[in-house]
Amino acid sequence: MRRDSLCFLIILLIACTWSTAALKDDIKITLVEKQIQNLQADGLTLALYLKIENLSSRPCFFSGYSYRFVVFERDFIQYPLSSLSEGIKIESRSSTTISLPVKITYSYLFKEVPGTVGLDSVSCYLMGRLHFSDGRRERGYVSVAYTADFPIYKEPEVRLLPLQINAMTLSGADVLFRFKLINGNGFDLPVERFDYELYFGGHSVKKGRIGGDLGLQAKSEKEFSIPLLLNFAELERGIQGLLQTDRLNCVLTGELEFRPYLERMILPLNVRESITIRK
């Protein structure tokens, strides 16, 4: 390599180092919030919100980013440099907030990082670079690194309990149907709505909505009851005979609506069990 070319390369490298160092003095980046978004049975989005402050006396432009997402010391997802066509202008002595989102699919996570199967939550970290320009040319980047965690969603479980017959006559029966709602997740489930239809031996006996405090704390269960005053004359034939046996084929269908992390989720229910009859 010619001497003048080598000198030019050294000067260029020094200039880039100075540029990046100067950029760190001009730009301050702060983690504002870590947010779980779009939580569904198959995955979620983990979004990190960053505040970018321009401390310099002239405008700058957020021009691009690259980052990698690490789980259990393994590169789980890598985002190559993504440039913004126009860039986001940040005026002198002002700030803006951006989001770095990571979409996580549980099936892919369990395949690539088997150690995450069965966990309530997973620790991770994000490492990357935010690039800046002066509107005409690139000025350099600022490195960022943040730790976070995200939940592994487990579908709530419904378990039917023995049917309690309090009284039964030739014309009807006073019955108490009970079930448990089980939250196996490491986070609370604020339940907002529980619509149901109940069947005994294939016959519909009641439909409605359960009210009251339906919320479930993390790793907890709650018992619910539905009182039934059955009029045999108004129901399909055969109900009376079914209640005189020791066991009953029961079906509970419906919809459970809850909002973990403020995300609306709907769980369709279709629970079929043979339950004990207690008299």
Give a structural overview.
It is built from 3 helices and 15 strands. It is mainly β and 279 residues long. The strands form 3 sheets. Strands 8, 9, 10, 11, 12, 13, 14 and 15 form an 8-stranded mixed sheet that branches. Strands 4-3-6-7 form a 4-stranded antiparallel sheet. A hairpin with a 2-residue loop joins strand 3 and strand 4 (74-90). The radius of gyration is 30 Å and the shape is elongated. The chain starts with a helix and ends with a strand. The model is unreliable at 1-19 (pLDDT under 50).
What labels describe this entry?
279 residues, mainly beta, 8-stranded mixed β-sheet, 4-stranded antiparallel β-sheet, 3 helices, 15 strands, 13% helix, 61% strand
List the SSEs and their pairings.
Layout: H1 3-26, E1 27-40, E2 43-54, E3 60-71, E4 74-90, E5 95-105, H2 106-112, E6 121-133, E7 138-151, E8 157-160, E9 163-168, E10 172-183, E11 191-200, E12 203-209, E13 220-231, H3 239-243, E14 247-258, E15 265-278
Parallel strand pairs: 9-15
Antiparallel strand pairs: 1-2, 2-5, 3-4, 3-6, 6-7, 8-10, 9-10, 10-13, 11-12, 11-14, 14-15
The secondary-structure class comes to mainly beta
Gap from first CA to last CA: 97 Å
Average pLDDT: 88
Order of helices and strands: HEEEEEHEEEEEEEEHEE
The helicity comes to 10-25%
Amount of beta strand:
over 45%
Radius of gyration: 30 Å
Shape: elongated
Biggest beta sheet summary: 8 strands, mixed
Unreliable stretches (pLDDT < 50, length at least 5) are 1-19
Our count of helices gives 3
Instruction: Tell how many strands the DSSP assignment holds.
Output: 15
